Amino acid sequence: MVTQQDLLTVKFNIAHPTGLLIALITAISLPQWALSAQGDDHQPLATSADLGVDYIFEQALRHSPEYLEIAVRNEEAANYQALGRSWIAGRPNLQMNYVDDSVLDNVGLIELEYGVQLPLWRPGEKRDMSTLGRGYTGQAAAWQDYLRLFVAGRLRSNLAAIDEAQSLLLLAQEATRDAQELLTITRTLFDAGEVSRLEVMRVESLLLNQQKNELQAEAALVDAEREYSVLTGLNIRPDSQYHEVLATQQDVEVSHPQLRFLQSGIDVAEAGIKQVEMLARGSPTLTLGSRRQRDRRQEAYIDSLAISINIPIGGNAFVSSKTSNARRQKVEAEVLFQNTYRELNRQLHEIEHELYLTEQAMPLTLQHQDLSARQWEMAKIAFELGEVALNQVMLALQQAHDSKREVELLKLKKKRLITEFNQGIGVLP
What are the angstrom distances between the C-alpha of 107 and each of 101, 120, 133, 291, 298? Predict the structure, then answer.
């Protein structure tokens, strides 16, 4: 019997050619627990009836990488607001001039001038800077709303993937049970001499293929649950499927979170033009200080107050060239807003059209499912009585499974389209 110690020995010697050969030979006779230990150890997530979507959404929001931007954007807005409240247009500078003739004539000439240089606001510039601060504040708030909608889209897609994988797994398990039932009937008929061994082998092959489909369905559910854990940071999920009610709103409005965020970008770009103009024109500066001087060594020092002002003038062509890039950025923001607005409405109408077609196809698909299920039951009874061949029974079974799968996929598609429609409108879960 292969023990856990044997497996560890093979694992550490596998780099050696002999160890590799032993590993291949040993793997043939590994017990089931060893194969499970070497494979994927991911276990299905636990489920809870008390786990609400609101809590899951908040966890997904806090777990998203983009959540880190909230603090930075709020800090940016606060800094620009503080700048708009400042009494001066920039940071002050200390200025000092010192003159001494000791190296040359050495008659005792000394001049010392020092002061504080203060950049001043031009008329209206302080108001423009306050407007820029409010723009960044509005953009930070709009970004948070847009982020919530963005994360909601991720969560909706993942929950839909889990529901789809779980539903298809249940269908695969049901199909496996039906194939097992058909195999039992076929073996009974074989024991009675009614069918050949070849037909038993055909049904066994059908069962094996269906078991393989079931494993693939389990893998799809595992992948969806992994994505759920990465998205939310949780190891538990709701035990019921996720449903939403279709929103009554029919068109995307400018209050859509994404559009409001893009509009805030236009507002910031507009205020940014004023800031670029201010930097290009330059700020008037007021220097307040003192001056101390002595013409000769025998004379007394003379102290005086020093006030100077520096006002940049002209340069309209230079200012226009500096602001042209900022104006282009504003126009690009406006173009992005318009294109996004059109694209959101286009996508919404496509989803609405798909939803209409899905609802129209549902009654016909349900009728086909009912008909296929009855044909399968009748074919199964007729096969037991020896009235039909195995090919007809297998065909009826396959049609019954296909029609049931089609109905389930149609239901899942409708649920997903409803969530996509609400996401396109801008409604949170």
Answer: 7, 40, 56, 19, 9
* pLDDT value, residue 315: 67
Which residue bears the tokens 């396109």? 424
Query: For the segment 251-310, what is each residue's pLDDT rounded down to a tens digit?
Result: 999 999 999 999 999 999 999 888 888 877 888 888 999 988 888 888 888 888 988 888
d(CA 257, CA 340): 12
Q: Could you give phi then psi for residue 339, rounded to 5 degrees?
A: -65, -40
Chain centre distance of CA 273: 32
What is the tens place of the pLDDT at every residue in 211-221? 999 999 999 99
Closest CA to 146 of 222, 208, 69, 217: 69
CB atoms within 10 A of CB 305: 9
**Per-residue pLDDT reduced to its tens digit, 134-153:** 999 999 999 999 999 999 99
- CB of 249 within 8 A of CB of 134? no
Q: pTM score > 0.85 for this model?
A: no
